[in-house]
Every structure is written in C-alpha cells, then in structure tokens.
Amino acid sequence: MANIKPFRGLRYNPKQFCDLSEVITMPYDRIHDPEQAAYYALSPYNFARIIQGAREPHTEDNNVYTRANCYQQTWLAEGVMLRDPQPVLYVLEQTFTTPDGVEHTRRSFTAALELTGFDEGVILPHERTLSGPKADRLELTRVTETAWGHIFTLYPDNENRINEILQPYLDTHMPAILHEQVIEPAVEQNFWVVDDPTIVAAVVAEMGPKVNLIIADGHHRYETALNYRDEMRTEHPDAGPDAAFNYVMATFVSMSDPGLVILPTHRLIHSYDALDSQALLKKLTAHFDVAPQADRAALEAALAEATPENPRFGFYDGDYTLLTLKSLDTMAELTPDRDANWRALDVAVLHEVIIEHAMGLSKESIARKENLNYLRDADEGYAAVNSGAANFLFLVNPTRMAHVRACTEAGEKMPQKSTDFYPKIISGMVALPLHGSIE
Fold this sequence. Notes:
Oligomer: single chain
Number of helices: 15
Number of domains: 2
Strand content: 15-25%
C-alpha cells in the first residue's frame, strides 16, 4: 500500500523571492559545469549551491557537503528559507509544447512517501542504478539531514480521481508561481501549497490502496533514501514508524494524466569503422524491411506510423531510410530469457538486433558510450552526420507508457535511455527535512 503523508516542507520564503527563476534549478544530475556556473551567477541563494555545489576545495571540514549544510543553516537563519507551519501537500503544474507543436499541461503533487523495498511491490524501478551517484547523494543526505531531490513517481489512476480532488482548491487559490518560465524556457510552472485538511486527507486516502507505482526519474535518489533509512534505524532503534527518515519526498503524476509525455532519445553513431552504412543496411535486410525515403519529412512521417508488433527506426547517413522489423520472433531468438514485453521495446530491438548483433558493439562499450551518443534533439544528429562528425543517426519513437508499465510489473529493467519523461520535475520548490517526525 502507498502510505503517503503531508509534510512541513522546507522552501524559499515567498516574501523574499517573488521571482523563483533565480533560485530553482534542474535536478542535480542535469547540472554540469556550464549549468552550475550559470546558476551560481543568477543568485547567491541558488539551489545548485546545495544539490550540486562547487567541488573545490575538498577537505574533511570544508567540502561540497559541509558547504551545502552551511547554506541550509544560514538561509534558514536569515529567513531566506522557511518551514511550513503545518503539514501540507504541494502541487506543480507544468505547461509545455512538444516538438510536434502540441501544448500539454501535466499536474503533479508532492508528498512524503513511506519507503518500501522494491520486492514489496508498492513502488517499482524501471532502470538500473550506478554506485557513484548513490554514494554522492547519501553523503549529502547524511550531512544535511534533508531530502533535496524529488522521486518522480507514476501512479495508476484511470479516472484521474486525485486531480479531480485537487481541482477545487487550485481553482480558488493563487499559485506561488504564476506562469514563470524557468530552467527549460518553454515550460511554464505553477506551484500551489495545499493546506486544506479535507482535501489533503482525501488525497492520502485515495493513494492508500495503490501498488505498482513506477519510478519515472530518481532511481538513485530512491535507493539512497533506503540506505539512509537503514543507517538511521541502526543509529536510532527506538524511533517510531513516523520518524521522517522512513520517508522520501516523492512527486506523483497519474499514468492517465493527458500531459504525461515521453520524448524519444535518438542514437548517434560516431567513430565506427567496422561497417559502412551500405554494408550495414544490406546486413539488416535479414531482419528488417529496408525502405528508402524521399526526405526527412517522409522518413519521420513513416516512423510515426509504427505499430507495437513491428517497431520502426529512421536511419540517416546523408540519405533517408526506414527500417521496419519483420517479426518480433527475431528478439525471441536473440533474447529468449527476457520477458515478451521487454522484447517488444523499440530501444531493446534497436540495441539487441542492430547495434549489438549487426554492428558488433558490446554492451560494455555501449555503457562507456565509445561509439554512441544519446540525443533528445534529432537536429543535432542530422547536423553531426552532415558535418562528418558522426557516421549515422538512428531515429526512434518514444517509448509507450503501456510498455513501461508492462516491463516494470514484469520485473524487467529497461535499456539505458529508454525513457525521457518531459519536462523534468524542477528542484528547489520544496525539500523534506529528515530529522524528527514526518509531521
């Protein structure tokens, strides 16, 4: 059962920050050196200073984690940040336009979710994790005793009941941010603090029976939270079930939300000399219908007409070619031990049949990205091929939500970069203190 609770969140003082675009950020794993420098330049109170701070110098007493804690304590003392006086829920609406020109609005709500192991079936992963990010996030959690990042979580709600419960409150209360375009400039953010006890209780009750929630983004953060909980239980064996460290900050989106969008992640092949494009296409005729296309528009239109039974890929090497898998039996032959839902994934077909079987790249080299780049923007891939910086580009369709759900419930981890849930849940709107009681 999904045990959620409202909580007294830690957030920027709205009396000091009318324009939160100066302080909120993308999630920590999207903040690299250029983004970090840009965030630092925006404000001395930017959230990046806590979740992805400058890494020099690094000593036992002065490092990225101790500095994060110093920022937290100083900002609380200065009134830059505050804790809400009562347990509440938080709602974020994000309005955005996808590359096809269609506008979407996706609603999410944030609550404290009781931590459970994946084997309990309440919440399920769909990606594998790496040890490095978990060690980093665990140390930040230890030193600051706060959960700073969101677990972007999908929940089953075929009738969108929770959104209906929230709607009257949103209709009668002004959001904390009104149409502020932050971080991703094409995304408008609206944020509410929901403090109506009746509505909060109704949302909590509606979530209670739910199982098979899916982590869309935040696998490392969730596993970090489990590790931190286990450490704290050892240190504080008498702490009750409502100890805050038994919870994680989760932001929930209905699987039926009309604004739930998964963008494709295309594959760009570079520095590859085992086969030229014509030799590769000839080899692929064993498993694919290989059909030349007149131009980019024709290729992308044909790509969009793919069916679940016959995955399709666009191939660009200066010319345009459509690749349509003849039969999923090929995947059954190559990956007999995998679940049928996993074998039907477009990205699984692309990697197993084309990139590994036909091209001869190993899973280890793919993990190291020796000949492979992942792209959200296909324009970058076309340009790289045209300039000679890459060999060819594989265009993929977005992963279907039904496939994500089926694979996850079957216990199958999806290939790397299978899903790009857009937009990201922004960081800095609220954090969850992990000391004391959850309420």
